[in-house]
Amino acid sequence: MRVMGVDPGLTRCGLSMIETGRGRDVVALDVDVVRTAADEPLARRLMAISDTVEHWMDTHLPDVIAIERVFAHQNANTAMGTAQAGGVIALAAAKREIDVHFHTPSEVKAAVTGNGRADKAQVTEMVTRILKLQSKPTPADAADALALAICHCWRAPMIARMAAAEAMAAEQKRKYQAKLKAVR
Predict the structure, then answer these.
(1) How many CA atoms lie within 13 Å of 109's alpha carbon, on the beta-carbon side?
(2) pLDDT confidence of residue 153
(3) Which of 3.90.1860.10, 3.30.420.10, 3.40.50.720, 1.20.140.10 would CATH assign to domain 2-183?
(4) Beta strand 2-7 with 12-20: parallel, antiparallel or unpaired?
(5) Alpha carbon of 40 to those of 18, 47, 77, 80, 83: distances in Å?
(6) Residue 123 near residue 47 (C-beta atoms within 8 A)
(7) Is 119 annotated as a binding residue?
(8) Which CDD domains does the entry mention (predicted)?
(9) If 0-12 CB within 10 Å is exposed, 13-18 middle and 19+ buried, where does residue 47 land?
């Protein structure tokens, strides 16, 4: 499975592509950071991110996109920009019929470090070890994008089991309601 990890942001948007093998084996295929200037109009910044992300999707052909979910931010403008960048990326994926999954920062940190409150240095160190990289990915947005992709690879089997269980429960509920309706 090929997973594109995205750490969305207007100024720096981290992109990564990893491939999972057997078990917890993951291999980094590519990593980059899209940068846009703060003095550019919002629409141009979003278009630059969109163009780059679309090129990545068309070049790397990911099976799924893992995007960091905007959870809470002290700065509302930063949170809004992050959400807008994430939305542009989710739209590009939807146009290509690529599944999108959102993961919170604490889910990602817990997946790669075992601690949902790990700092950026710990995340970067573990990403470097897990992927057996020669050097630490920089800036932190690149490491975060790799961590998102790793998180999704490791959580994907559980996500699939949960979706199957939810589908089964919905089917059972539908059958039960049909049975009740027939009795009335």
Answers:
(1) 12
(2) 92
(3) 3.30.420.10
(4) antiparallel
(5) 31, 11, 15, 16, 18
(6) no
(7) no
(8) RuvC
(9) middle
Please write the tens of the pLDDT for every residue from 131-163.
999 999 999 999 999 999 999 999 877 887 888
Using CA atoms, how far apart are residues 105 and 86, in angstroms rounded to an integer? 14
Please give the positions annotated as active site: 7, 68, 141
Report whether 63 belongs to an annotated binding site: no
**Count, residues in the chain:** 184
Is 58 a known ligand-binding residue?
no
- Write down the residue that tokens 């027939």 correspond to: 182
Query: 23: alpha, beta or left, given left = phi > 0 and alpha = psi -120 to 50?
Result: left
Average model confidence (pLDDT) across the chain: 94
